Amino acid sequence: MKFESLRIAGLRCLDGVAITPAPGISVFVGANGAGKTSVLEAAYLLSHGRSFRAGSRDVLLKRGATSLSVFAEVRAGDDRARRLGLGRESGRWQARVDGDAVSLGSLVQECAVVCFEPGSHDLIAGASDERRRFLDWGLFHVEHGFVNQWRRYQRALKQRNALLRTGAPLDGGLMDPWESELALSGEALSGYRKSYLDRLVPHIQGFMGNVLPELGAFSLRYKAGWDEAMDLAATLHERRGRDLGRGHTTAGPHRADFSIAFEHAPLREHLSRGQEKLCALACLLGQASLHAALRGEWPVVCLDDLASELDRTHQEWVVAQLLGRDVQVLVTGTEVPHALTDQPVTVFHVEQGGVTALL
């Protein structure tokens, strides 16, 4: 997938911005605070429905603005063109595909962007919800059946939690149907995630051996969110009393996680911050590689503040991995990163919320 155009209005400091990214590598340069990262943020919004920065979607709105919009024309590997949009006005968010209002999930399925940025180490060191989002985003794009099961599970989870929050004695007649739906969709979700990870790990390993060879063999372990010695339906029934006391469901795929280990660093706590970043980078590139293998096209790859996040050796390694592939890459920096100075790139200057292509 590639962006043929990107228009941004009311997003942080960006307003009235129109960009035609190169089909290969585009570099956005400018001073700190000029709005470079927000360009990548706009692309990421269309693909994930949220920013990679901390905070709610509401904080994206430019100060003093009453609306925000990101529009793009994208072209898929099968030469299929799509017009995508995400906007906020009067406190409401709306997604569009080819002019038609759609759900946020439908928009996300049409746009594939992965991003390596200063907070990417949270994929390794952060809370479990970061890793669940990582898995589920990949599945949204390659397993259409996953979306329906995910929605079924979220609906049943909401209903069971609502019953638990009443604090009233549990009525099996009310609880049983939702637990049955939760167990069926939850077991299906877990199956999708396990299968996805089985396919993903070899792609990650292919990159991990290059960025962290000193740590030895890499492995990944999935945790379903409940003790799989018992099926989910039995677990939910057994935990009713405990869940009633806590007011929410304490077992299921919404509690799932995965952990990584290396031969010479069996615990995450053994990794330095720099190693966490490189590990996250290998995971993101592995996910992009699997996406390409299953969909026949690479997602757009964003690299935010590349020169600050990676040393020169790893910058050159990343560039070498992407050059020669049919992939669109968006890079930011205060200047063109050293690894790209001798490469065919298109440079854009970002200043005071405006973006200008440089010859």
Question: Describe it for me?
Answer:
- This protein has a six-stranded antiparallel beta sheet.
- It has eleven helices and 14 strands.
- It is α/β, with parallel strands linked by helices and 359 residues long.
- It is 42% helix and 22% strand.
- It has helices at residues 36-48, 104-109, 122-125, 128-142, 144-165, 172-211, 232-238, 240-246, 273-295, 306-309, 312-322; strands spanning 2-9, 17-19, 25-29, 67-75, 81-89, 92-97, 100-102, 113-116, 218-223, 257-262, 300-303, 329-333, 345-351, 354-358.
- The total strand number stands at 14
SSE topology string:
EEEHEEEEHEHHHHEHHEHEHHEEE
Write the CATH fold name of the largest domain. Answer: Glutathione S-transferase Yfyf (Class Pi), Chain A, domain 2
Main pleated-sheet profile = 6 strands, antiparallel
Tally of separate domains? 2
Instruction: Kindly name the structural category.
Output: alpha/beta
Return the CATH architecture of the largest domain. Answer: Up-down Bundle
Tags for this model:
Glutathione S-transferase Yfyf (Class Pi), Chain A, domain 2, nucleotide-binding, 2 domains, P-loop_NTPase, Rossmann fold, alpha/beta, 14 strands, single chain, 359 residues, DNA damage, six-stranded mixed sheet, DNA-binding, DNA-binding_RecF, six-stranded antiparallel sheet
